[in-house]
Amino acid sequence: MKSVIVGTAGHIDHGKTALVKALTGIDADRLEEEKRRGITIDIGFAHLELPGPNGEMLRLGFVDVPGHERFVRNMLAGVGGIDLVLLVIAADESIKPQTREHFDICRLLAVRRGITVLTKSDAVDAETLDVVRLEVEEFLRGSFLDPTHSPIVAVSSLIGTGLPELKQALVKVAAEVPAKDSNALARLPIDRVFTMKGFGTVVTGTLVAGTIRREDELEVFPGGKRVRVRGVQVHGQPAEQALAGQRTALNLAGVAVEDLARGMMLAPPDTFRATERADVSLSLLPSAKPLKDRARVHLHAYTSETVAEVALYGEKAVKPGQNAYAQLRMDARTLLLPGDRFIVRQFSPVVTIGGGVVLDAAPRTRGKKDVVLPLLRILDQGAAESIIGARIARNEHEGLTLVQLTAETGWRQARLDQILAGLAQHKQVLRLGERYVHAPAVDQVKQSVLRTVEDFHKKNPLVPGISKEELREVVRSSPEIFGALVSLLVQERKLDVTGELVRLPGRGVVLKDEEAESKKIIEQAFSSAGLQVPALYNVLAGLKVDKARAQKIVTLLLRDKVLIKISDELVFHHSALQQLRGQLAAYKTKSPKIDVGKFKELTGVSRKYAIPLLEYLDRERVTRRVGDERVIL
């Protein structure tokens, strides 16, 4: 059964609630004060099922909104998720101020379909009704309710005339409404919260996207509280699930009534992020005053309402009837996604002045207009591939994960996978680890990495390579992306990596003549000394090269394990230590244990050398200390 949400709009006392009751038999005025005063104060709900043009049933959910100017904020809470509107105009009063404001709101929210209903037709004669019809036709001309393609139906809710014709028109228009995407990620803006005896906390709303089932876990935005769906009702009837486009009531576990309020939204957990900033395309009504940069407004989106500052991009003010790109800076965090429509009302006096569409609910810090505006034009008018490409390009070589792309766009992974595959095929996007990155930006960083390593080699000819961490800090990249980039360059044979050192292929240490001679002197000094090694500083003091270069030569010998450092003061040639291992192996055939005295006697070294050498052998697991002796392993 196809579900369509029908909203009413129009001036106070033009018969919106009476019309809904005449169509459905349900009085949408549920509050005692509404019945006492005879006006609609808050949004009300009703439903009706009609046979469709092809024999299938249409389920119409009616959202009845207040017409009084003091309750336009409540009207806005109900009109956000509607598929078509009944613009209600009383035949005995014609077009009034809230007729115009409600009509403007519907246009700003991009409502595409509707029916104009001339109510109270029994209160005027035929001639007056014709005059009112002409006035309304002129008022609607050029809009989505233009009478050349949208019906105008005169009715009397009191005596029932015109109601059959209105139902026929509803069936025809409702059949044209495209179905909402029940496979999308679910979002339910909350418009009512109450307690039902025997059930507990209940919320209602129009499910604007996706599907919600019994036992689903959901997250409350903003705030992040987790709830479980204990029960589902659709148009007042128990159901296993609610689909996009249906009036939905959810019985929730894990949350109290006082923790929820109109304006909050339910969505899958760990999927979206509430925001305090959103980049938007803003339209100002022709009847509004100019809107200055940094002006404060009342912002309405679905059922939420907050105060926001309008920061214009590249403009000092928006003129009446014009469009502009802007950033909305909200006083309260709100869950918004690209494509969401919103209304702005003047801060004081509070009247509707404009609206628009969200382009980016995860904007970066407001930048220069020559950078931001091209991006916003793509987000506003570009195809899906261009939008995803632009979002990734904005993050340059750091890119975005699938989880981040879903949070920014609201699109499911399957759709994103298809788009990303196309971008990768055209070499616009690369995948590095879990991130999708802008290919040209990656090329730039790769060149920066290679230049940095090349410069390091030139400045440090005696050092075999630059450390990974030092290189990462220079190119300013996250560990994940840096590791992937280095691996990519190694695969391309443009870099070599040994342990923590990175170097260009074939770029070993190049020594000048006096440096090569000094290296030979150092190595010979230690190889000829056996275990009776000289102090390192004495060896370096006799070299022709300066102290810094001498130290680099020692570092090179230590790296290549020609020299072995066993303590802060003692360095040995590797051949001497290898010979020592042989001596101990031969000694073990006589005795499995050795003490310091016997070690000194075996090696001919003093205690100054014996203790550090034995500690080194312990570390190397050649020996193991047991009391005052060592067991030879």
Major beta-sheet overview? 8 strands, antiparallel
Radius of gyration: 39 Å
Total separate domains:
5
CATH class of the largest domain: Alpha Beta
What is the first-to-last residue Cα distance?
82 Å
pLDDT < 50 runs, ≥5 residues: none
Basic shape: elongated
As a percent range, the share of strand residues is 25-35%
What's the CATH H-level superfamily name of the largest domain? P-loop containing nucleotide triphosphate hydrolases
- Kindly name the structural category: alpha+beta
**Looking at CATH, which topology of the largest domain would you report?**
Rossmann fold
Description:
There is one protein chain. This protein is α+β, with helices and mostly antiparallel strands and 633 residues long. The chain is 35% helix and 29% strand. The strands form 9 sheets. Strands 7, 8, 9, 11, 12, 13, 15 and 16 form an 8-stranded antiparallel sheet that branches. A hairpin with a 3-residue loop joins strand 8 and strand 9. The model has no long low-confidence stretch (mean pLDDT 88).
